[in-house]
């Protein structure tokens, strides 16, 4: 699997650290309540098909990248800097 | 159909014409007391113990493919009870005891081989941890022996002891650990359940879970609707999709775990050997193939096949530990879908929907759990209360923080298990 870093270009997957589903970017408000926080920290949609992950380009430029990817085929569909997604 | 020595001899002398199918192939009925979604090891053992221990035989196991075609038929077959934390320790201890009586119980040769498992350590700190874990294993009623490097050299002389990076300081041995023939475990439970009246229905995919007024009433399937008083979701790597049919989101991420087997070799590895520092574990099958694996591919996947970076990593770790296997040819590899929970431990619990039960979160270690998982799940479904060996395997432990079983000490967080 190869991932295109928006800054560095296409790179080997081993240059990146996987940090799970990109819902990590949708952090609840501090006072959102225990239920919202439990859901955010632990529960996942975990789709079979298209998903959005958060990857850290630790062996490259250090960017956080949102990767749109198919979990059934490992096809990488799109990549985007995490800071550009909000 | 029962196996016996006499029967084997008789069949051998008469052309093996008397053997019959191991389980019935019924059409689904309109309604059951219990419907089990998933015909893998855990689903089949649940059905078996529901019938045997609780007399509940109006049960259907619905499998979208064929029985035992998922992870139970593709794993590294290791059976052990070397867990540490309360919750896991009594559960896997319970499972190992069930393994030890399984062949007699099922009248089926599952080739359970207590060849011993050695977990290596490579530093003083790891030795201390191994001693502590060994004491915990003895406290839970199981066996553990600490091996010095001199003892280890006599037992397994072929390891690379003096390597620069991870010199071997010793190992923790559990003699009662070992392996079992994974397919036979599925087949034995299937036959035992079918003989007791359970309907095992293959090629039957569940497409919906019916819930009315907070109570489960049945399932929709590719072979029609089936009513049920109770429904158990036991679908391992597919747990998220199954639970979504009941409107639930689970604390599960699905990952792929690869494993490998070589050509058949003469007997050379007598134990199960685990090399935690390199993420590598190996045993030799009774056919002679070296069976080994490593870590997850480390990103969410349903591909049922891995990618090459992890293949390379596993081969490197294997060569680091035991250079002697370098000439062995790898015949095949495969990838299974693992239902990874945030704390690396399983979930056996009721759900918030009346009559709907959940069994998932087996991570990369479901095979050794098959007997206890089914035993405890059947107890829960039959009685409505958790079995004492599975009392801490609750779904709400992430929300409450009570009883989190984080064996790796990495925190109850996705992506770290």
UniProtKB/TrEMBL annotation, chain A:
It comes from the Bacteria. This is Sarcosine oxidase subunit delta. It comes from Roseovarius phycicola.
UniProtKB/TrEMBL annotation, chain B:
Coiled coil: none annotated. Its cofactor is FAD; FMN. Residues 34-78 form the Rhodanese domain. The keyword Oxidoreductase applies. Its EC number is 1.5.3.24. Keywords: Cytoplasm, FAD, Flavoprotein, FMN, Nucleotide-binding, Oxidoreductase. It is found in: Cytoplasm. Pfam families: DAO. InterPro entries: FAD-dep_OxRdtase (IPR006076), FAD/NAD-bd_sf (IPR036188), Rhodanese-like_dom (IPR001763), SoxB (IPR006278). Gene3D superfamilies: D-Amino Acid Oxidase, subunit A, domain 2, FAD/NAD(P)-binding domain. It catalyses: sarcosine + (6S)-5,6,7,8-tetrahydrofolate + O2 = (6R)-5,10-methylene-5,6,7,8-tetrahydrofolate + glycine + H2O2; sarcosine + O2 + H2O = formaldehyde + glycine + H2O2. Belongs to the SoxB family. This is Sarcosine oxidase subunit beta.
